[in-house]
Amino acid sequence: MQAVVEVPNFDFHPLPPWPVSAAAPYSFMPIHPTSSDTDVGLFVSALICGLEGDHDDPVAALLAEGTLSQPGGLRLTDTATRAVVAPGCCAGLEDWREWVDILAGQPPWLGHGPTPEVEIGIDELRVWQDNGANRHIGQSIVVERSALPELLNSVHRDLTGFLTCVQTWSERNGLGSKGTDLVEAIDRNFHMTAPLIFPEH
After folding, report:
1. pTM of the predicted model, to two decimals?
2. What is the residue extent of each domain of the chain?
3. Distance between CA atoms of 201 and 104, rounded to whole angstroms?
4. Residue 78's CB: how many other CB atoms inside 10 A?
5. What Å distances lie between residue 84 and 63, 94, 106, 126, CA to CA?
6. What is 48-86 written as a DSSP string?
């Protein structure tokens, strides 16, 4: 289980003022404690792509926003079969903690086109890439229900570590206090460092 963000298509957005990782538009980039400066640059650039209009100081424009969002979410990969279930369109990284609600019997909304779905069983979860009419012949991944907390704790550690990468990136780019404010804004909007609380069984 990995936190991922969707790579923007810079053909339709202003080029970022810093280096970014080379990645195919609309692919998914994992974020984690060893993310490179260019990965962080891509993450922040994707945030900027969500703003209206052009900005002389894009970081200041981000900080002026009341709410930040980022297309993406959590991606599952079966290490044995290599099956992958990725977030659907309109899913956002900001909603990643909704996976916790599965343990209380409430499946999260994971986007559409395709429309991923979590089928909740007693001991297992089956995560489908698409809940359409032919879903039962489509790709899916089985997760032991008891394994979900540790998978989410691993994502939590990745996101917390990623914030350190953002702070380092902001220092290298000379953002000063705006860099610290950016870290706080990302943490607040994407709920990265707050403790994970699981429902009692």
Report:
1. 0.93
2. 1-188
3. 8
4. 15
5. 34, 21, 22, 12
6. HHTSSS--SSHHHHHHH-S----BEEEEEE-TTT--EE-
